[in-house]
Amino acid sequence: MSALQGLIAASVFTEIAALLALAAAVGFVALLLRQPLVVGLIAAGILAGPQALGIAQSDAHIALLAELGIAVLLFLVGLKLDLGLVRSLGAVALATGLGQVAFTAGIGFLICLALGMDALTSLYVAVALTFSSTIIIVKLLSDKREIDSLHGRIALGFLIVQDIVVVLAMVVVSALAAGQGQATARAGLARVGLGGGLMLLGVGLVIRFVAGPLTARLARAPELLAGFAIGWAALLAALGDAVGLGKELGGLLAGVSLASTPVREAIAARLSSLRDFLLLFFFVALGARLDLGLLGEQAGAALLLSLFVLVGNPLIVVAIMGAMGYRRRTGLLAGLTVAQISEFSLVFMAMGVALGHVAEGALGLVTMVGLVTIALSTYMILHSHRLAEWLDAPLRLFERAHPWRETEADGAGKGPPPADVVLIGLGRYGGALARRLRARGLSVLGVDFDPEAVRAWRQAGHPALYGDASDPELVAALPLGAARWVVSAAPPPPGGLSHEDHRLALLDALRAQGYRGRVAVTAQGRGEIAALRARGADLVLLPFSDAADRAAEALAEGA
Questions:
Q1: What number of other Cβ atoms are within 10 A of residue 494's Cβ?
Q2: How far is CA 266 from CA 217, 431, 456, in A?
Q3: Is the distance from CB of 167 to CB of 105 less than 8 angstroms?
């Protein structure tokens, strides 16, 4: 044992401190190289693993922190999950989730047979390829601020369906691993169904009778509210794991149970930093578990299966959603979220190895597929809008002549009404801006990529349109002839201006459309003003600076 490993072994605290320092250093290098932080953290895990520096030795402690991070992450997702919207997206979530699983398992099985694997190994590998990492996808969509978009909500829906399939597969293999045959497998499935039903019933009762009054009392002590939220997330995650549903679904149900309370935004704000801290351990643990010795044995087969997952999974989602009446762009943005396999794929294969059904080489094969697909799909999701632009023409094959699900959402195909101001982004800033513009006698058409925001705006009696500012087709659908202003009040993307910035895409599309009115966009800081003006913006809004300036003026006048 090296001196470094000996020092770390003397103290779990020292080990955790070393992991944090290593993750920060590798993450910083990834930032300098303009790489996704997820990839950097997985690389830090590989460096910390037993085959490199050997820092990660307390597997139980790291796993505990990682699992708590998963519970908090899915809890925060559940907080924003509107049950009415889940019901409205239930059909597409079920169809895409089951369709993707069936397609990947069926075609993957045939590919594995063609590669010379036996039938049982082919079945195990094919099933492992159907799992996608909900945690990684939710983190990436959250970072891009697309978790509330239409494609983000659909993706979350079919990932939940996929997670249920994962649970069922794990139950069957666990029952077989216990050596008790098909009867116990059926009993395990029945236990999961019964336990899941009881949990859903309990969550329903909490929503109906407990959540509102309890959180109203807890809100008087914000620190206690945050502690309660963490404890509630961990408790339901543990219950979900105990009944066989898994910690992920348990944490999600915990968030759903509090989603209708008025304090959900306060809870989300307090727990977001804790989520990011704990998820660091999840990604580090994922990298540390990778067995590098198994990765090179079947490189050719791994690359072929990786290509199948990276291309085939998104295409089947695009095809299914296109057949159900969604636009090809929405289908691709949702489909890219399943262009990788999950950490559960490795667990599933490890269970097969322990049972004696598959050899170690099959685990190495799936490990390499996981490494390739997680890394590449991260880039695909981060650059999803550019991919959608590049693949727009080929994907026309998968879109109906009339994608009625989205055009009906925009007003039953009647087209948006003309307005003085087209305002893109109906969040807190955009909503406040729209109200003040209307108070000054201007008509406003609201646009947002969050179906829930559009629905709420219409219910308030205001015209609204579903649309994504980065979508080139949005501008063609806007009533620009009467518009004096087009305003982008959507939050600027983190990290400053980039090629995929929705503000630049909007400015370019307006210019290509021949729009002659004026355009205003928001910016994070004064350093972006010159670039945005050069691209065509007539006015650059700085929400925080502008508000501070107005407040300072009011204070000075009253002094």
A1: 10
A2: 14, 19, 20
A3: no
pLDDT in tens, 488-539: 888 877 666 776 778 888 888 888 888 888 999 998 888 888 888 988 889 9
Token pair belonging to 13: 């605290």
H helices present in 290-335, as ranges: 299-307, 313-323, 328-335
**Distance between CA atoms of residues 540 and 524, nearest Å:** 10
Strands across the sheet containing 421-424: 464-466, 444-448, 421-424, 485-488, 518-522, 539-541
Q: Which residue has the tokens 């959507």?
A: 490
Annotate 526-539 with b (16+ C-beta within 10 A) or e (fewer).
eebbebbeebebee
Single-letter residue type at 128: A
Buried b / exposed e along 274-292 (16+ C-beta atoms within 10 A): bbbebbbbbbbbbbbbbee
Q: What is the DSSP letter of 416?
A: P
Token output for 68:
């708590």
Coil, helix or strand at residue 20: helix
Q: Which of 326, 402, 307, 279 is nearest to 96 (CA)?
A: 326
DSSP code, position 39: H
pTM over 0.70: no
Strand partners, 448: 466
Which secondary-structure segment (H or E) carries 6?
A: helix 3-9
Residue type (1 letter), 320: I
Q: Which pLDDT score is estimated for 309?
A: 93
- Written as six digits, the tokens of 164 are 């249920």
Write out pLDDT tens, residues 19-60.
Answer: 888 888 988 888 777 666 777 777 888 888 877 777 877 777
| Per-residue DSSP letter, 442 | -
Residue 216, CA atoms < 13 Å, CB-side half-sphere: 6
CA–CA distance, 63 with 284 (Å, rounded to integer): 10
The structure tokens 């994608």 sit at 403
Give the model confidence (pLDDT) of 184-239 as tens digits.
Answer: 556 666 777 777 788 888 888 888 888 888 888 887 777 788 888 888 888 888 88
Q: Is 93 within 8 Å of 159 (Cβ atoms)?
A: no
